[in-house]
Design brief:
Blueprint: E1 8-13, H1 18-28, H2 47-61, E2 71-74, H3 78-89, E3 101-102, H4 119-125, H5 127-136, H6 149-166, E4 171-176, H7 178-188, H8 193-201, E5 210-216, E6 224-232, H9 234-238
Parallel strand pairs: 1-4, 2-3, 2-4
Antiparallel strand pairs: 1-5, 5-6
Length: about 250
């Protein structure tokens, strides 16, 4: 029987973005809206995010060649593509940007009418949505024009099937967003709503934090993926790159 799952799967959140920085400034000033200029898809890394991405690349480069990613799947959002590019530039991946698999299913969650609003902005401009979210919880609440966690999970379920179909036995790196890391954990580990929300409640996924799985032939019929580490920030600490864990831009909608 052919192996269905990758030998190794790493899921990484992008480095700190200028949107993360703008979000902190907006909340510190009690503003209603986060000013990031332009589309969320075009928000770049901050200078610190570039340092974090390069630090992670050097960590991968320090592993034996047979323990480095050979396939890179990445969100189409600029900050994720920049992160993957800097990881490669530091020697961390065999595949370069021309060979990255850009997959729109790995994009950030869409916040719809709540996009770029702080928690204060949501309470003042869309109080009914704030109440719906409290009643339904973040797993099921879908803001108008946006997505719930279930919606993200639906597209990621398809993306994970693609990984299993095309990259069995390979070493795969996925570079995405906080919600992508969490929802892939939900899928790979077959969690419940309560289980993944408990993980989320422990703290935000750190920028350039590593979630790593290894293939386990004894895990179910045909084998499966076994969690090796989650939210691993040691590569940044070793390189002296500060660890950041700001929520994504529409924190009030998380």
């Amino acid at each position: 029987m052919n192996q269905r799952w990758p030998d190794r799967l790493w899921v990484v959140r992008h480095g700190e973005s200028s949107g993360n920085v703008a979000r902190d400034a907006a909340h510190a000033a009690n503003l209603l809206q986060i000013e990031t200029m332009g589309r969320d898809a075009d928000v770049p890394l901050s200078p610190l995010g570039e340092r974090q991405s390069s630090a992670l690349g050097r960590w991968f480069a320090g592993r034996p060649p047979e323990e480095r990613p050979e396939v890179v799947l990445v969100s189409p959002y600029l900050r994720a593509r920049q992160t993957a590019g800097l990881i490669h530039a530091a020697g961390g991946t065999a595949a370069g940007p021309d060979n990255f698999v850009v997959d729109e299913r790995l994009r950030e969650r869409e916040f719809g009418v709540l996009d770029r609003l702080t928690r204060y902005g949501i309470e003042q401009q869309h109080p009914e949505q704030a109440e719906f979210r409290r009643a339904l919880g973040k797993f099921y609440h879908r803001p108008p024009g946006g997505e719930s966690w279930c919606d993200v999970i639906l597209r990621l379920r398809s993306a994970l099937d693609t990984v299993a179909l095309h990259y069995g036995g390979a070493r795969v790196l996925i570079v995405g967003h906080q919600v992508v890391v969490l929802c892939l954990r939900y899928l790979v580990e077959r969690m419940t709503e309560e289980g993944i929300l408990a993980v989320d409640a422990e703290g935000d996924v750190v920028n350039c934090g590593v979630t790593e799985y290894a293939f386990d032939p004894g895990r179910g019929v045909g084998g499966g993926l076994s969690l090796q580490r989650y939210n691993f920030a040691a590569p940044l600490e070793q390189e002296g790159a500060p660890v950041t864990a700001e929520p994504d831009v529409s924190v009030g909608a998380r």
